[in-house]
């Protein structure tokens, strides 16, 4: 009787401390395309396009470090506006993205898996600008009349904050070969020249822009076992 009680107690303790195992790949590669929006000196913000690719390093099944390259366009203004520009840019970003699954307990239900794969992130971006289509803007101050607007070909830094979700495809054996990625990124810049306009003297406004894209993430490389407490 004592032996049966001991075995039962041991089984209960073992069961309570058992952790779910998730096997995942350490790397991923993504191709994406989407739209950009500029928040700059020119009004009537126009949507434009962005395309790119990214390499991911996955410290867990939910979080990842991303190195991404974007090629896109930022533009705003119409012919009747005082300001109008078009910036054909390329950028290179490093971001760390923290998945909610690292804080939530593992659960096999579909809705919990979706929540686990939501992430937020931040990092740094080097953006190479090519402002080639710009409308000069004249303004007058007590010091005289000046013309604003120039073709700008240079590099600046911006700081992206972002959020997204990976809709993962799972095989019958629980493997995840790829995922559909929905991603939103907002870029804060400390520069006011991304649109070719630096503004009148005393202007402290800086240029911001955002990107929204849909991508396909393919997972590859060595696998690792991730242990999680089940719910």
Task: Give a short summary of the structure.
Helices cover 10% and strands 58% of the residues. The protein has a single domain, classed as Porin. It comes from Solitalea canadensis (strain ATCC 29591 / DSM 3403 / JCM 21819 / LMG 8368 / NBRC 15130 / NCIMB 12057 / USAM 9D).
Question: How would you explain this protein's 3D organization?
Answer:
Keywords: Signal. Residues 1-20 form the signal peptide. With 231 residues, this protein is mainly beta. The chain is 10% helix and 58% strand. The strands form two sheets. The chain has an eight-stranded antiparallel β-barrel with strand order 1-3-4-5-6-10-11-12. The protein has a two-stranded antiparallel sheet with strand order 8-9. The relative contact order is 0.23. The chain contains two helices and twelve strands. It has helices at 2-17, 110-116; strands at 20-39, 45-46, 48-57, 64-76, 85-99, 118-128, 131-134, 137-141, 144-148, 155-169, 178-189, 208-228.
Largest sheet: 8 strands, antiparallel, barrel
Cα(first) to Cα(last) distance is 32 Å
Indicate the percent of residues in helices. under 10%
Find the CATH topology.
Porin
Strand content: over 45%
Structural class: mainly beta
Order of helices and strands: HEEEEEHEEEEEEE
Uncertain runs are 6-18
The CATH class, by name, is Mainly Beta
Mean pLDDT: 83
Q: Please, how many helices?
A: 2
């Amino acid at each position: 009787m004592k032996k049966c009680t001991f075995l039962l107690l041991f089984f209960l303790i073992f069961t309570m401390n058992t952790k779910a195992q998730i096997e995942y790949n350490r790397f991923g590669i993504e191709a994406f395309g989407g739209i950009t929006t500029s928040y700059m000196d020119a009004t009537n913000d126009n949507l434009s396009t962005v395309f790119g690719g990214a390499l991911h390093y996955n410290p867990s099944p939910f979080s990842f470090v991303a190195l991404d390259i974007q090629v896109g366009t930022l533009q705003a203004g119409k012919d009747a506006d005082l300001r109008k520009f078009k910036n054909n840019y390329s950028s290179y970003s490093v971001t760390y993205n923290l998945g909610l699954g690292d804080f939530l307990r593992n659960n096999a239900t579909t809705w919990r898996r979706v929540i686990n794969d939501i992430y937020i992130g931040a990092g740094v971006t080097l953006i190479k600008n090519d402002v080639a289509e710009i409308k000069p803007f004249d303004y007058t101050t007590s010091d005289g009349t000046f013309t604003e607007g120039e073709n700008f070909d240079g590099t600046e830094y911006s700081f992206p904050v972002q959020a997204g979700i990976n809709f993962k495809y799972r095989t019958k054996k629980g493997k995840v070969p790829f995922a559909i990625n929905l991603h939103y990124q907002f870029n804060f810049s400390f520069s006011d020249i991304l649109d070719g306009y630096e503004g009148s003297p005393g202007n402290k406004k800086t240029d911001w822009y955002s990107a929204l894209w849909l991508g396909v993430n393919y997972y590859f490389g060595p696998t690792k076992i991730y242990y999680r407490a089940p719910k």
